[in-house]
What does this fold into?
Amino acid sequence: MALLNSDLILVGRGGGSFRTTAEDLKTFIESGDGLVFRGSANLTISPVINPNPPVVGDLYINTTAGTVNAGWTGAAGSSCDVGDRVLWDGSEWDLVTSSSDVGVTDVSVLAPIVDTGTAASPVIGISDATNAAKGAVQLAKGSFDGDGKIATDNATDVLVGEHFDELAGRITASSGGGVQSVVGDNGLTASGTTTVTVSGIDAAVGTKGVVVLSNTVADVATTAATPKAINDYSVPLDLGTLTELS
It folds into this structure.
């Protein structure tokens, strides 16, 4: 991407940091003797350069990160990285860093945030919440079935205020005596007020109720014969199954 004239460039001089614009740097390069690339140099040691002394426009690229050696007058004492450049302006060296305004260089995450991408192209997401770990959740729907069940899609959906309000209404109705009376019918009877006892009534001819089952046949109005009793005491339709008379 091309530089704009308004772009800012970091310049180190005399142990301090200064800024200049790309336009000023361009003007500086275009004026006078021009820019001459002389190769690489280790800025953390005394200058090993050719020619020595330098001439205006001499440019070197740094090979070692650290602190600029005192021999590089003008840039001495500044921090330098590999790729930084020094330019001789006729009286001292100007340090032009290659790492200024590079933006985000690393992304680190903490659970439940996750990074499933690469160092160059991070993909940031969030893990689902569990009983043991924090994470992302989905809110349950705000609607209810006729029996009061929440109409939700997932067992892990989270309730919101609307759900608790509905539940509170049910609790209030229950604590206030939501069931006012119990009436027995169709073979059942109910007795009591606060504590109601429901029981069955004895069956009789023409009256529904409860009976006692018996495997024998007896003349008892509240006793009903089981299929075994009928089988034991009845004459089979197939007389051929009976023992022959001798």
Q: What stands out?
A: The helical segments are 22-30, 161-175, 227-233.
